[in-house]
Amino acid sequence: MALLNLVVVAFLGLLLRWIFVAPVADLNFKFLLHAHSHVALLGWLYSAMFIALLTAFLPAELADKETYTWQFWLSQGAVLGMLLSFPVQGYGAVSITFSTAHILLSYWFIYRFLKDTQKARLSKGRHRFSLLFVKAALFFLALSSLGPWAMGPIMALGYSGSVAYFNTIYFYLHFLYNGWFTFAVLGLLFWLLEHYRISFSRKSGKLIFRLMFWACLPAYLLSVLWTKPNAIVYIAGGTAAFAQVLAWGVLLLMLLPVYNQVSALFARSTRGLAILAALAFSLKTVMQLATAFPYMADLAFRLRFFIIGYLHLVLIGFISFFIVTFFAQQGWLSFRYSMSKWGMGLFVLAFIGTEALLFLQGVLFWIGWGAIQYYHQLLLGMSVFLPLGILLFFAAQVRGRSRPLVGCGPKLNPPLQKV
Predict the structure, then answer these.
(1) What is the pLDDT of residue 402?
(2) What three-state secondary structure class fits 67?
(3) pLDDT tens digits for 167-207?
(4) What local confidence, expressed as pLDDT, does residue 45 receive?
(5) What is the pLDDT of residue 412?
(6) Which residues of the chain have pLDDT under 70?
(7) What is the pLDDT at residue 403?
(8) Distance between CA atoms of 348 and 176, rounded to whole angstroms?
(9) Which of 2, 113, 137, 212 could bridge 48 with an S-S bond, Cβ 3.0-4.6 Å?
């Protein structure tokens, strides 16, 4: 179901890029963009994290509780409601009702999940360190929801399109992808290390957590630099970005000695995705530091190609590729069919091609060389392979549901097989 939502997201994205080439009179670009972003964040990424955290951390007797089944399918109903209402009315009574329902369901999930981790005494078990990142992720998920709650009063008071309006959106996005999704990914990464008994420095791990957690809060200021605030805001945001770079460096130094063991966790077909996710995370961290400088912050705001490229880099390149890699490592997704390999291959190549074109166009405007000839047509042509690729991949998973997933996971060395 989560993967099906990604297929829908990809087709919506293609439609958005089609509008730049051949505008459709009855389609509102902004309304479609709202549908695209909400289904991506809540239909695909939230659903995938929901599944990953439940299955990885909770014992089967707790993860299989009917409560979570209700939570999952009610959230899918809310996503479907947003998918149908946002293209018609944008932020209106119906779409806001469904998005509010999803927020309330996320609160229910946070409460129930934390209660069940206490019941299972996970804080004293093998995965207690990775659980620390997951708890932080859930904290940031709750914190991000303050953004949508504030949107109602802001719009009711007639401030739609104001500085407060956009900064509220950036608040939501920042704590969603830099907080909730990023910490959930790191939690799953450390879960793999703990689960397969790959040794790592707990001291370094705690330093990474502290740097990342305390930097995430003031790092929101990087999202408001477009308003050209006082120097102290630049300094605070820059310090937070530098702390995140330090955390990235410590993480890299911690993982390099065990690279071969970590690599052995993944099948050959998914190792490339894992490397792409790591590369995207590295680029994300460096780019955030760059935006701490006034010139780069203003440049990123003026050239929307950089913002679109950055968001896709984080949400697809980093988070989505890691999720697919993790699911395949657990045997929940299969690459044993050529259709799945071709599908994901097309999706990855289209992602790299569209990212390159977005950033290239931004750079050319930056240096004053102007627009690439037939830019929108080229972007549309490359984007065709995003929905095509993920649709093929999805079809391969549906085909494989009726057959046991044998041989799709990694070939672990003997010490890891004992776990």
Answers:
(1) 52
(2) helix
(3) 999 999 999 999 999 999 999 999 999 999 999 999 999 99
(4) 97
(5) 41
(6) 402-419
(7) 55
(8) 23
(9) 2
CA 289/CA 1 separation, integer angstroms: 36
User: Does domain 1-125 sit in CATH 1.20.120?
Assistant: yes
Return the structure tokens found at 138. 């859930």
Contact 351/312 with Cβ under 8 angstroms? yes
Q: Which of 46, 83, 285 is nearest to 172 (CA)?
A: 46
Token duo for residue 37: 């972003």
Enumerate residues 6+ apart whose C-beta is below 8 A from 334.
Answer: 328, 340, 396, 397, 400, 405, 408
Contact yes or no for 354/386 (Cβ under 8 A): yes
Query: What's the CA gap between 280 and 264, in Å, rounded?
Result: 21
| H helix or E strand, kind and range, residue 224 | none
The string of DSSP codes covering 3-37 is: HHHHHHHHHHHHHHHHHHHS--TT--HHHHHHHHH
How many CA atoms lie less than 13 Å away from 169 in the CB half-sphere?
A: 12
pLDDT of residue 300: 83
Cβ-based burial of 418 (10 A; exposed 0-12, middle 13-18, buried ≥19): exposed
CB contact at 8 A, 191 and 56: yes
Report d(CA 211, CA 250) in Å as an integer: 10
In terms of C-beta distances under 8 Å and separation of at least 24 residues, what long-range contacts does 393-399 make, across chains too?
Answer: 393/3, 393/339, 393/340, 393/343, 393/344, 393/347, 394/3, 394/4, 394/6, 394/7, 394/343, 395/339, 395/343, 396/334, 396/337, 396/339, 396/340, 396/343, 397/3, 397/333, 397/334, 397/340, 399/337, 399/339
Start-end ranges of CATH 1.20.120 in the chain? 1-125
Which residues, 6+ apart, have CB-to-CB distance to 321 below 8 Å?
A: 273, 274, 276, 277, 280, 348
